[in-house]
Every structure is written in C-alpha cells, then in structure tokens.
Specification:
single chain; mainly alpha; 6 helices; globular
C-alpha cells in the first residue's frame, strides 16, 4: 500500500490503474489474480527499492524456506502451491542449485556462467525497459 502513495512519480498511470484494481478486488485477490509475472516482478523490485528490509524478510527469506522444504520433499512427483510473490525466487534457487537457467532469464546474446554477472540487476533493468516500452506504446 505504501507504494501507492508515490503519486508524483513518472508511473502515475500505472499507479492509478493498480489502485483501482486493488480497491475493486481487495489485497489478496489483487496479488493472486490481477497480476501477471512481469507486474509481480515490478512490485517485488519496487519493494526492494523502497523497503529493502521488509522485502528481505517477507519475500527473500520465505523464498529460501520454501525452496528448502520443496528440495527436501520425498517422492517422484511433488505438487506445490505457493503465493505468486515467491514463484521467481523459488525458481532462481532451484536453477542455481541444479545448474539450470531460470525461465525468467533469457539473454539472447548468451552469458558466461562462470563470469561475475549480476543476473538480478539484468532482470531489473530489462523489467524497467519493458515497462517503459509498454507505457510508451499505450500512450502512442
């Protein structure tokens, strides 16, 4: 809710649209039904910018806990139901643990897995670029 108080930002149209959705369906349904993965990533990254300690406790630590429980689960097939806020984090932990590339990371120019590249920063920048392009297209 604190994010919606930033009315004098460059994202005023997005803020107003999301506020209307939130008022119509309530916080629980808003985070689960009204958002796609790109918007959810936007809110997680915004929380990291504006409230890094809260994000660390409520998202990052919970992602790690959920991943550990999933990884220790016994069975050939496992079904896990988690909040959308934790999908990307769990996927990143899983990919890192088993040497895979997360589906959300798609760098057509390729990456050096041995290199010291900050993947989260790359995703963050791509998110802002994609969002800016969508807003510009919508305004056009």
């Amino acid at each position: 809710m604190k994010r919606f108080q930033y009315f004098n930002s460059r994202w005023i149209n997005e803020t107003l649209s999301n506020r209307q959705k939130l008022e119509m369906v309530g916080p629980t349904a808003f985070s689960e039904k009204c958002l796609d993965s790109n918007q959810m990533n936007w809110f997680i990254q915004s929380a990291d910018v504006f409230f890094p300690k809260v994000k660390k406790i409520m998202v990052d630590e919970k992602d790690e806990t959920l991943f550990r429980k999933i990884d220790k689960a016994q069975g050939e097939k496992i079904v896990v139901v988690v909040n959308q806020w934790h999908m990307e984090g769990i996927e990143h932990h899983w990919a890192h643990r088993y040497g895979q590339v997360p589906r959300s990371v798609d760098f057509p120019e390729g990456i050096n897995p041995i290199g010291d590249m900050d993947l989260r920063e790359g995703l963050f920048q791509r998110l802002y670029n994609n969002l800016g392009r969508e807003i510009s297209t919508a305004n056009s």
